[in-house]
Amino acid sequence: MNQLQFGEIEYLAAWLAGSGIDVAGWGKGEAKQLLDLWREYTSGESCLTDNPPARQIDVAQVIIRRGDRVLVELAQEFADDRRRSRLLPPSEKLKGGESPRAAAWRCLGEELGLREEDVALGQSAQVSEEVGDSPSYPGLPTRYVFHVFEATADSLPDDDFYRDNAAPDDPIRRHLWGWRRE
After folding, report:
1. Integer Cα distance of 18 and 6 in angstroms
2. Sign of the CA dihedral with 124 first, then 125, 126, and 127 last
3. Which residues is 65 bridged to in the sheet?
4. What's the alpha-carbon Rg for the chain, to the nearest Å?
5. Where are the alpha helices (DSSP H) in the chain?
6. What is the mean pLDDT of each run of 10 residues along the chain (182 residues)?
7. Which intervals hold domain Nudix hydrolase (predicted)?
8. Whole-angstrom Cα distance, residue 49 to residue 135?
9. Are 34 and 10 in contact, with CB atoms under 8 Å apart?
10. What's the DSSP call for residue 2?
11. DSSP string of 101-122, one letter each residue
12. Which of 43, 54, 90, 123 maximizes the CB count within 10 A of its CB?
């Protein structure tokens, strides 16, 4: 399994096509665009491998509890007004060289607008792996390594709420959050 290097988005597109990955549906429905994968790749949030072709990412997830409920992202709204359902805890892909804990703090700031004084974040993470088809990039197998932290954050609203995404160049404009039973 070789980690691939691409100097331009056109080479990435050619590799995807040559690997039999159809990107015609990307940028439609719930899928992100080829440009989004390019930005993710060039920022160090993912790497791509061949034999077989795959995307690899490390993800910091933060489980925020309130009684018997957990905070989940109910939906994301793209900048072009498309919307997709999520039902996932706050999560952020690690950038090249970033620690899982630093990515967890970045997630809490960018997606929820929280500051360090607003959150009690656990010191260690549980690590698990999963392989599957990416909903963001259909047809591109993805290996996920999850670094899961426990946290509490009392300043969040009790009802479902929106937060604008503060991450630069992110295709997601805002997130809908809510508390759901585990």
Report:
1. 14
2. negative
3. 70
4. 17
5. 9-18, 34-42, 100-112
6. 88 96 96 96 95 95 96 96 95 95 96 94 95 95 97 95 90 96 90
7. 59-156
8. 18
9. no
10. P
11. HHHHHHHHHHHH---GGG-EE-
12. 90
**Tokens at 76, concatenated:** 């994301």
- What burial class does residue 45 get, using C-beta atoms within 10 Å of its C-beta: 0-12 exposed, 13-18 middle, 19+ buried? buried
Looking at residue 167, its pLDDT comes to 85
Q: Which residues contact 106 (CB under 8 A, 6 or more apart)?
A: 60, 92, 98
Q: In the Cβ-directed half-sphere of 59, how many Cα atoms lie within 13 Å?
A: 20
Is CATH 3.90.79.10 the classification given to domain 9-181? yes
**β strands within 45-140, DSSP E:** 47-49, 54-66, 69-78, 83-88, 91-93, 120-121, 126-133
Token pair for 30: 């719930």
Could you give the 3-state DSSP secondary structure of residue 41? helix
**Which tokens sit at 168?**
């630069």
Does the pTM surpass 0.85? The reply is yes
Task: Round to whole Å and give the CA distance between 165 and 21.
Answer: 29
